[in-house]
Amino acid sequence: MAMIRNSGIIFRQLFDRTSCTYTYMLACSKTKDALLIDPVKELIERDLNLINQLDLKLKYVLNTHVHADHITSSGQIKKILDGVKSIISKESGAVADVHVENNDSIKLGENIDLLVKSTPGHTNGCVSYFLANGPCVFTGDALLIRGCGRTDFQQGDSGKLYDSIHSQLFTIPDECIVYPAHDYNGNTCSTIGEEKLYNPRLCRTRDEFIDLMKNLKLQLPKLIDIAVPANMVCGV
Amino acid sequence: MAMIRNSGIIFRQLFDRTSCTYTYMLACSKTKDALLIDPVKELIERDLNLINQLDLKLKYVLNTHVHADHITSSGQIKKILDGVKSIISKESGAVADVHVENNDSIKLGENIDLLVKSTPGHTNGCVSYFLANGPCVFTGDALLIRGCGRTDFQQGDSGKLYDSIHSQLFTIPDECIVYPAHDYNGNTCSTIGEEKLYNPRLCRTRDEFIDLMKNLKLQLPKLIDIAVPANMVCGV
Fold this sequence. Notes:
homodimer; alpha/beta; Metallo-beta-lactamase, Chain A; six-stranded mixed β-sheet; 14 strands; globular
């Protein structure tokens, strides 16, 4: 069963067809407090409409890292909704209301408690957010479905990414659902168990992984020169 | 909580970025028997790979209707995997191993029992598949998230669609999750309660709805002349 099962949590996965980014909305069904993970600037209206229609109160906007392929809506949301706090890792160096570090806990309402897991390698400030009572983990660009984030810009480091995934994510129970920040093949989720068995990049030795990542020969994201500086300051 | 909660069911939502079609995979976690709803021909490898990696046995391929915008992979899957049965409504007039009608039940393994709900209007053979122990309903092109299927070709009938949705879908409990065959705005699911409140087309009188649908002025789907005849014979 690859789905959050906890009935105390309202959950939505949202997709940006342009950058293939997944945004996640989590809310406590008791207090109606809500948070967004990795929202996309162009889709702010869709996301805020949904929160409004579901009668939720947005409290936090989290980013898993400083994105290079799209601009976050966190700053814009803060301008529209009073009291919303932006959250990103301290290590990212980006501006935010709250800076988190490994093992920090982000509590919301009565039912949501996200554990911050430091998973650098794609960027040096990448974190994953683990929800024990999902169970699920929002892996950003560290672990993707049958893939992983690239490591050839923004302080990327293949060895570090391999270690992050193996020590911080592959140690979570197998049935935990993986919700990544992107998927380009129409997959919406996976599980830790599946990725341990079938991720073609991670089922290798560390040296093989580093070698493979060195030879991907990918084009730079179109938006990188605009998105990275913008995302260092909440996208505004 | 907009997600299937039943832990006896393995569930995946899959997306086709070209036609914005959602394919669904459901399996009984006990017997490992699986079914696919609305699979897309070009993505057969992705879908069969997933079933293989999850160690499932595909038994049924269901279509909610004769699609006009993509070709089903049901016939091709039957050629590859022995014993798989294709399922579509009798009313559709399409070739299949099993023809279903309103109130029929499709049982799979120990945990899956889909109730067929006749929801014509987009085409005259449209059905929705209701899973009471989700609870969720796969609505095909009848009810979309904040929208509905068009009614200007393939025996489309706006009045019939309005009646189908109101009598067959809006009578399901509010918390039931809606999984449509398409979404063009990056939404992955909704609930019956939300659509009753916020679907801009369905929150109208029957006459207003018919009038609105008459004036949509949509272009024909690019693939209609290829997809409809192909889908009448399982896509092959």
